[in-house]
Amino acid sequence: MRSFVSMKNMEKDAILNLLHTVQLIKTKNYQPNYKGQDLFVANLFFEPSTRTKMSFEVAEKRLGFHVLDFEVNTSSVTKGESIYDTAKTYQAIGANLIVVRHQEEHTARKLSETLDIPVINAGDGCGEHPTQCLLDLYTMYESFDSFNDLNVLIVGDILHSRVARSNAYALKTLGANVFLSSKASWQDDRLDFPYIDLDEGLKICDVAMFLRVQRERHEEKEVGDDVDYLKQYGLTTERYQLLKDEAIVMHPAPVNRGVEIEDELVEAPKSKIFRQMENGVYARMAILDLLLSKGEINNGYPIEERLLRAK
Ligand code: CP
Known about the structure:
Strand content: 5-15%
Bound molecules: phosphoric acid mono(formamide)ester
Low-confidence stretches: 297-303, 306-311
Helix content: 25-40%
């Protein structure tokens, strides 16, 4: 794999391989380290981010890379420089890999087709968010060990959610059953999965994934009344009782507390929301390692051995 920009056409073995690497890194059975190799990673975030940007930075520092930061407002983007020229400049001055978040769909893919260095998609508009997907998949894997016939319910602002898209594609590849629940105006024809009633879905699901209301991507401000949204489409205490004993609740965050999920439930026993954030560092370490190790033996363990040690 040269770049990591989409989950859509990623093969099952490639996803499982990455998940095993995440597990090895988290359990400290594999600790890749690039210190001394003088490799530079650039984090080009054109949209706001807390989790993704900071967990990439932690992952990069743990792996021993030099981190090149970027601030849109103090960069030459303010003088009209394009995303392409910005990325090409980072490549020219020595970046060995670029992480990019941008408001336009396909930005990372287009850069990956033109640059000579690997590109990681850290979220592209309403397109995809594959590193979020990997940490979400790993969080599910920690709870259930398998994706076969896992019932995953994705709830909320599907139309504007790159998280929903990446997860739906990957979960289908892995053999899970994906269900969507959303108000009519936020349903997305591009995703060929059944829409079901929220309460019915909560009764049968193993994973209930609530999505952030993506207000910044709405042409018209649709959510006038947050309390009303919570009652109709959010996780309330009453709905929490519908969940199976072993079911888990997820959300990519940031959470609009009291809108998608009742405030007290964000840290309820079934919630894995802060676990997702923790796993984000390991997931991003695994992806960076995959792209920069060039498939070579790293830190003494060939990939076959890494897989064996993950079992
Ligand atoms: N989940 C997520 O992408 O969060 P940030 O926007 O804070 O990176």
